[in-house]
Amino acid sequence: MIDPVLLRESPDLVKKSQRARGSSVELVDVALAADTERRAAILEFENLRAEQNVFGKQVAAAPKDEKKALVAQAQELAGRVKAASQRATDAENAFTETARQIQNIVIDGVPEGGEENFVTLREVGTKPVFDFEPRDHVELGESLKMFDLARGAKVSGARFYFLTGMGARLELALMNLALDRALAAGFTPLITPTLVRPETMDGTGFLGEHADEVYYLPADDLFLTGTSEVALAGYHMGEILELDPTAPDAPGLRYAGWSTCYRREAGSHGKDTRGILRVHQFNKLEMFSYVLPENAEKEHAALLSYQEGMLTDLGLTYRVIDVAAGDLGSSAARKFDTEAWVPSQQTYRELTSTSNCTTYQARRLDTRYRTESGKTAPVATLNGTLATTRWIVALLETHQQADGTVVIPEVLRPYLGGLELIEAP
After folding, report:
1. Is 390 one of the annotated active-site residues of the chain?
2. Alpha-carbon distance values, 246 to 363, 377, 382 (Å)
3. One of 17, 353, 355, 364 is an active-site residue; which one?
4. 109-161 pLDDT, tens per residue?
5. Is 355 a catalytic residue?
6. pLDDT tens track for 405-419
7. Is-catalytic flag, 308?
8. Is 195 exposed, middle or buried (0-12, 13-18, 19+ CB in 10 A)?
9. What is the pTM of this model?
10. From CA 131, how far away is CA 259, in angstroms rounded?
11. Catalytic residue among 8, 87, 278, 319
């Protein structure tokens, strides 16, 4: 949730953020009223409890003949304290429920509007031009025996697939290249759970407006994760992390989570039904950082640079966009998407993204660090994908040749036994 002090002292800033997202501005006033009621209820309870403590000492020191009457008063006061405690608890819960509906405060400079209002920051590389009729990734993948869509649908239904032969090997090569890059940048590798408890899923902000995208197992009260970000965000929930506030250049704690991901793709009927662009299950290597709040924007730039380094070395043409506020998830204060050029579609398609969630997730998951004063404060969390199954689409289409073979980018060859071409078996 957002910082209650920020809500109280700068409600116009919170309203501006909600307005930029196209979300409820009125919710801010509701939360402010709930905060006022909460603070009044807590003050009433604390005053009554202090009165009870003082009165208790009077009862203990009173003569025996006066105690009976005083004990009766003490019991009456105890009842009032209990009622005040319940009112404070109810007011706290009401405020929390309301405040958790307010989305993270967008960072200055994030474009307003919806999905179509993004700002292109840069385009990198030269769009491939072919002297033959290029094939799309489905034609290439099936002719090279790299995936089997028909049997995927037969076994599991629409938007499922088998990666076969060089398809499976190519994905593993991508993931291992990404893992090596992450290790070189100081990330600790984790293979994460893909089933998480509701409090973990909710704490990361994935049970809001996009809850219909999430698979839920009611018999176990567990959710399947659509990204290892969820498990990585929950990894340190309820903990105080050892982040040194006197070392401003320290990168914080960095993790690289390798997992299978599951998304229902609700509301995407008819969109990208061909191939492996929009599927229900895929693999992904996710970078996740816990940093001091003042270092969050610097870390965001670092995560983006690692993504761009991968795309460049794989020979992909891409652009980086600053995602508009209305297209951000509830936990992201800013998100950069990197989109690769897909020749068969003559357009850019998202391959990866990186989000700065500032202290939003950490507040919800109670992940803190100790400040120089000795008090605790929420950390900042960030995430970004370094490789995923979808990248195969751009790789095949970009590096295809007239004879139907595909050139393997040089950086991937060590992970494929030195092979330079993907050819039909």
Report:
1. yes
2. 22, 15, 21
3. 353
4. 999 999 999 999 999 999 999 999 999 999 999 999 999 999 999 999 999 99
5. no
6. 999 999 999 999 999
7. no
8. middle
9. 0.91
10. 39
11. 278
